[in-house]
Structure formats: C-alpha cells, structure tokens
From TrEMBL, chain A:
PANTHER family: RNA POLYMERASE ECF-TYPE SIGMA FACTO, RNA POLYMERASE SIGMA FACTOR HI_1459-RELATED. Gene3D superfamilies: 1.10.1740.10, Winged helix-like DNA-binding domain superfamily/Winged helix DNA-binding domain. GO terms for molecular function: DNA binding; sigma factor activity. Residues 7-73 form the RNA polymerase sigma-70 region domain. It comes from the Bacteria. The keyword ATP-binding does not apply. It comes from Solitalea longa. This is RNA polymerase subunit sigma-24. GO terms for biological process: DNA-templated transcription initiation. Residues 100-147 form the RNA polymerase sigma factor 70 region 4 type domain. SUPFAM superfamilies: Sigma2 domain of RNA polymerase sigma factors, Sigma3 and sigma4 domains of RNA polymerase sigma factors. Pfam families: Sigma70_r2, Sigma70_r4_2. The keyword Nucleotide-binding does not apply.
Automatic annotation (TrEMBL), chain B:
The chain crosses the membrane at residues 40-60, 66-85, 127-145, 151-170. Keywords: Membrane, Transmembrane, Transmembrane helix. This is Uncharacterized protein. It comes from the Bacteria.
Amino acid sequence: MTFEEIYQIYSPRVYRLCMGYVNDNSWAKDITQETFITVWQNLGKFRQESSVGTWIFRIASNNCLRQIERAKKSLKSELPAEIEEKFSDDNSEQEKLLFRFISELEETDRLIISLELEELPQAQIAEIIGISEGNVRVKIHRIKEKILKKFQQHEQLQRHKTTLA
Amino acid sequence: MNNFNDIKQLWHKQEVTDLPNVKAVIEKAISFRKKARFNIIKHNVILTLTAIYITFVLFYYKPEFFTTKLGVIIAVIAIVMAVIIQSNMLQGLFKSSSSEENSHQYLQKMIRYKSQMSFFQTKIMKAYFILLSLGMGLYLYEYAIRMQWPYAVLVYLVTFGWIGLAWVKFVPKQAASISKGINEVIEQLERVNNQLVEKDAVQ
C-alpha cells in the first residue's frame, strides 16, 4: 500500500477520531496532519506485526494524548452549550452535539468510543489502547450508556423549553 | 436518539471535506525532516566554533599558567552545556515515538521521560553555574596574581558577586519555572494514565 492510498483511506477516519477527542475542527486537522507526517516518516520501518489500520490509529491516538502538553488551548467542550447551539442549523445540530458529548468524556474514553464508532474490532481497540479486550467491552458499554443518557437529557430539556414557550 | 445505531449513523455523517491534500502532507513531512537536519548541523557548527575559539585563546594569548588554560576549558564546557539546554536537543533525546507503543505504554513512557527531563534540566543548569564559576576563578588567577592585591580582590569580588547573585536569585527562579511547567504536564499525564490503570485493577 502506498502512502497516497493510505492517506486516501485513513485520513477522514483519523480526522473523525481527532474531532471526537478535541471537538475543534482546525485542531483536529492539525493532529490528523501530524499523524500522517509520522506515518510518512515511519512507513519504511513499519514491520507489519499489526494491520496498517491498527498502526495508524495507534499513532493517531497517541498524538491525541500528546495534546495534553498543549495545556493552554482549552477544549471546546468547556464552552457553554448555548454559544455553540446558536450557530448550528437543524441538520448538523445533532452531529455537533455528538462531538460535544464525546469530548466531555474522559480522555481515554473519547478514544475508545471514537474507535468503536469507526467500527474497529474490539480486539484491535484493545491493542491500540493497551488494555484487555474484556476491559474494552465493559468500557464501551458504559460509554454508550453515558452518551445516550446525555442525548436523552438534552432532548428532555429541549421539550421542557418548548413547553414553557 | 434511543439507540446506538443512530449515533453511529450520526458519526459517519460528519463531512470531511477540507483536509489538506496528500501532496501538502508529504511536502510538510519533507520540510520537517530538513528542519531537523538543519538543527543538527546548527548545533555541530556551534560546537565546532567553540572548539576553534578555545584553541585560538590558548594559542594566541599563550597563558603561562596551567590554571588559565584549565579555566578556559571548564568555562567553555559550561557554555556548551548551556547551549544544549537552550536548544531542544534534550527534548529530542527524550522524545517518545508515537508509532511503536500502545496508548497505555505511550503515556507511561511520556511520564517517565518528562520526569527525567525535569531532573536533567535542573541538574545541568546547576552544574553550568558551578563550572562557570570554577572556570572563571581559575582563568582570572594568572592575571590577578600580577595585579596589586586590592585590585585582585576587587576583580574576584565583582566576578563572584555577580555569579553569587545569579546563583541565589536567578537559578532557583528558572529551576522552579522549568519544574512547574513539566510537573503540570506530568500531573495531567498521570491523571489520564490512571483512567486505564484503575479500571484494569477492577477487572
């Protein structure tokens, strides 16, 4: 597989993972670019011990975690919800909410659920994050519940607002 | 939003249109590699010029005392150490590759590297001041011994007064600021690492 082919297939997927982690479009693009620069630099050294996908998502996940060093830049999830909602149209509101809810999770949970949403097998997620497959399963179950609950709470709040209006 | 499949669909609806094209990424990767090479060359040039400078001082001024020569060498070693700290050479040495470890190992390695970096930076900075003072003291000896004693005392007082002030005032301040920055990052890394460790223990 050439670098061009890899980039074509994986860059949108890596971008979504990064968006799930930082919930900031330009920041996510930066991490995506950093990830593919690392891929380009190390492609010759890649030993095929794991699949290319696992390898690329591992680099992307580690690059996301490295953002901890950029402490000054705050995550978008820290913005008040109302500000973001003002700018969103109906179609993308749900999408924006999803990325906001994910970015409100703990750092490693953000990665795990983004990888799950990218439909990676749980064994591969375990290999990328470095925890047992059983642990991944438990975590995914809990995270799914958390996100659904956030959506339901949001819907309830919206209904409540409409009733009041 | 009642089931996770809706969420999955929503996730894949996210449009990814304005990512840089592959050529731009390759060009950036090449420019990074060039920059890294230039940095290595730059440091080598600095170290070579320093070596030439030592040789020049020792041959041109022909100091008679061994202490003078030793003083110059020690002071120069101190300066070279300062150059290394100021540059990002140490960071490069401690940089962990994101392509070889899983996230859990990567976090642990980053915590270890950051702690080592903080330790080294603080120690090397202290060693710099000690070596610089020692070098200056030895270097001045040959010239001070030829002066009348009040002048010699004055020269030593001014020199060590300045170094002493730096040691008491600037060194602790700089060391504290280095440690503070690194410790904050370590704290964050440990917090994230614990998200994986604690649940492992529960399992």
